[in-house]
Predict the 3D structure of the following.
Amino acid sequence: DALRLVGLDELHERATSDLSGGQQQRVALARALVSKPRVLLLDEPLSNLDSSLRAYMRRELRRIHREIRTTSVYVTHDQLEAATLSDRVVVMNRGRLEQIGTPREIFGAPANRWVAEFVGYDNFLEAEVVAKAIETASPLFEQHHHLLQVDVPARGLALSADEPRLAQAVANLL
């Protein structure tokens, strides 16, 4: 049943050493799935595969996860894998928790500069927040309107952001 799940039921008589890298990864996954674990730990399972095989295996892992519906903890340094395979992402720095969120939250609003750099941001400005306010635009809909005023002395400009996503992005960088 586990070999069928990973698409290798027709190769069940072959030695693992006679299989391709991707097939060997799927055999390892099938071995882990045989015991029907409540939590599946995958520690850098795609790290030794070439890019096209990694893309294929990401699709396979998503399909298998949807089929088995078990909690999986996927350890990776690859941001693409984290973003495409996860419902929730935990970003850690030297054993310290930096941020927990959906891929959209992590990549769209990093909690701090370290997380921003880790996920690929590289355009930072040194700035000082000179005024900050949150105004409720409509209590009925609980929408919040953010106003953030920032002075960027090195660039000789002041930024006033009244669009919530821009204000949040700038606030996260400071």
